[in-house]
Design goal:
Length: 616
């Protein structure tokens, strides 16, 4: 009767916590977070491509490489709900809600119902997890699949059988298809196996059989991905080489880098969190000081009870989830470390119970501790609501960190007439965010980096100018026709319409023609507006006007400006490709601004500018 009642209370409490998790992750999901980050849009575009061209993909090599499971789930969501930013993020939010339930199940199996429910409640109300799970990243899968894998492994370890071992192996095999950081979790699992062997030999035949089934099934499920990486080793290491301090030549000695990485990562418990606005209110710790205290107490009790298998498994899980932060730069990165959220809150829940026992100097009494645990979860949820909706999601800084201006650029492009040429200014060529929100209109966009260039056609055209890439002379763009605003009320993207206005020369006429590798003219340097003077250590600006004479020349061409003294020695140089040759049209003019930094040791005297095009 007591056990049955306990199960009913667990289900009731778990359902309440899952409801809280759903509210915090689904409320106003169509409005918050603002924008659509580059990486989120890339997942959406890959899912759309998968729907249009159904096939089996083991790894998506584009955008530095992506494991496939999340993209398949997003494609399924698009098929059911249609293609939109909301449906893209809804898939991630539902995964986040399921992660809370998975944490409750894993915590109950390891440490009992109370710890499991409290850990799930803390995860449900976690600002860290709410921020990440309301955005569409494949890393969202780790807090879901990893607790399930730990739970199934523990069941197989406690009550070994071939079926349980196979189920656990299947979950661990699926982990390989989630996110790059889980590649370190098998090392933690191996450490657990070594510790178990050290605690006593495995003489139980059933346990040995279950372990064998676990290894075989896990390997069989992950084997296709392993085979892919064997054929494409460059895809395996691309992202690791970009973020790892061990792989970086400038990171210094490995031991020093590791110590620094460990220190930086562990500071997220109560001291200093992620600095990136797109994942956090900068520097806000992952666990606030109170929860960090509970976490430290929980880790302490796990170490005190290291002779217990569940303590060893829990510590290995936590270590494996934190390891990506130990070996990568800019730690703590809250996205990269999101897999550490479930074991972190499990440790905090364990520490909460331990401190209650010590303070009460008696066995835990149900009603007071349930009331205190509920109060803790409700307080954390209230803090998260204010921090997320009041401070983070409604911030202009977050809007721009999540490429909100590019998202609105795409939406503006989607509403333009079909016969009107469209030009889009962007730091990134063919930005995925604009591609996702513009829809079919994206194929009509010509891309340039407005900070350094401005293409001008002979006829009417529309220019979409986000705040992140504003041209230096917006008078050339025509008249303002529409605009969008950031959460602070400032214009974030503006739409200009330019009439059929002749392009006027700027500065001194030149008239020098450049030919391409095939001997055909590609561009003419029409005029130059050069500075009359400059100082050593400063930057001088050069404005050039070009007439393009070819459609999409095959060679990549850089615009350059060199500052030379009387002897031909170069004291300053600027090379740029703000308008890629793939976008060139023979009837266009192009304004290019080149900022030439002058060497601080440049002597006084007469200098001349050498201008031109170069094939890198």
């Amino acid at each position: 009767m007591t056990a049955a009642l306990g199960r009913r209370w667990f289900v009731l409490g778990g359902a309440t916590i899952v409801l809280l998790a759903a509210i915090l992750r689904l409320l106003w999901l169509d409005r918050f977070p603002p924008g659509l980050h580059y990486d989120e849009a890339a997942y959406g575009l890959q899912a759309i491509d998968l729907l249009q061209h159904p096939r089996l993909v083991l790894f998506f090599p584009a955008f530095t490489g992506r494991e496939p499971l999340f993209i398949y789930m997003v494609a399924t969501g698009f098929r059911l709900l249609g293609t939109s930013v909301f449906s893209l993020r809804l898939v991630a939010a539902l995964i986040g809600v399921a992660s809370v339930a998975a944490t409750a199940v894993a915590g109950r199996a390891l440490f009992g119902q109370g710890v499991g429910l409290l850990a799930a409640g803390l995860l449900a109300s976690s600002f860290w997890h709410v921020v990440i799970s309301r955005m569409a990243y494949r890393a969202d899968l780790v807090p879901l699949v990893a607790p399930l894998a730990i739970w199934l492994l523990w069941r197989a370890w406690q009550r070994p059988s071939i079926r349980r071992g196979s189920l656990a192996g299947a979950a661990w095999g699926v982990l390989a298809y989630t996110y790059v950081s889980v590649r370190l979790l098998p090392l933690a699992l191996a450490l657990f196996a070594v510790l178990e062997l050290g605690a006593g030999p495995l003489r139980d035949r059933r346990r040995l059989t279950a372990a064998l089934a676990f290894v075989v099934v896990a390997f069989l499920i992950a084997a296709p991905l392993f085979a892919y990486f064997a054929r494409h080793p460059e895809d395996f290491g691309t992202r690791f080489s970009q973020t790892s301090t061990i792989a970086s030549e400038s990171a210094g000695p490995v031991a020093t880098s590791l110590v620094g990485g460990v220190f930086d990562t562990l500071r997220m418990y109560g001291i200093r969190g992620d600095t990136l606005q797109k994942y956090n209110l900068p520097l806000r710790p992952a666990l606030d000081p109170l929860l960090a205290l509970f976490f430290l107490a929980g880790v302490g009790i796990l170490l005190w009870r290291i002779r217990e298998s569940r303590s060893r498994l829990m510590l290995c899980w936590l270590l494996g989830a934190l390891a990506p932060g130990f070996v990568t730069a800019d730690s703590p990165n809250f996205l990269r470390l999101i897999g550490a959220a479930p074991p972190s809150y499990l440790a905090a829940a364990l520490g909460f119970v331990l401190l209650w026992e010590r303070i009460g100097r008696a066995q835990v009494k149900a009603r007071p501790i349930v009331a205190l645990a509920t109060l803790l979860v409700v307080a954390e949820a209230g803090i998260t609501v204010r921090a997320y909706f009041g401070d983070w999601a409604s911030s202009a800084d977050t809007y721009y960190a999540l490429d909100g201006d590019l998202a609105d650029l795409g939406r503006l492009a989607a509403g333009q007439p079909l016969d009107l040429p469209l030009f889009a200014s962007s730091e990134h060529y063919k930005h995925p965010t604009a591609a996702f929100t513009a829809g079919p209109a994206f194929d009509r966009l010509s891309w340039f980096d407005g900070r350094s260039a401005l293409p001008l056609g002979p006829g009417p055209a529309a220019y979409l100018i986000p705040r992140s890439a504003v041209p230096r002379n917006d008078r050339l763009l025509g008249s303002l026709a529409d605009q969008r605003f950031d959460p602070g009320g400032e214009p974030s993207v503006r739409l200009f319409r330019r009439a059929s206005t002749p392009v006027q020369a700027i500065g001194q006429p030149i008239g020098l023609t450049f030919v391409g590798e095939r001997g055909a003219p590609v561009a003419e340097l029409a005029s130059v507006d050069a500075p009359r003077a400059g100082r050593a250590g400063e930057t001088v600006g050069v404005q050039t006007m070009w007439r393009l004479l070819a459609d999409a020349p095959p060679e990549p061409l850089d615009f350059f400006a060199h500052a030379l003294d009387a002897d031909g020695r170069r004291w300053g140089q600027r090379d740029a490709s703000p308008y890629l040759t793939a976008e060139w049209r023979h009837d266009q003019s192009l304004v290019v601004w080149l900022d030439v930094p002058i060497d601080v040791t440049a002597p006084a005297g007469q200098y001349r500018l050498r201008l031109g095009l170069a094939d890198p």
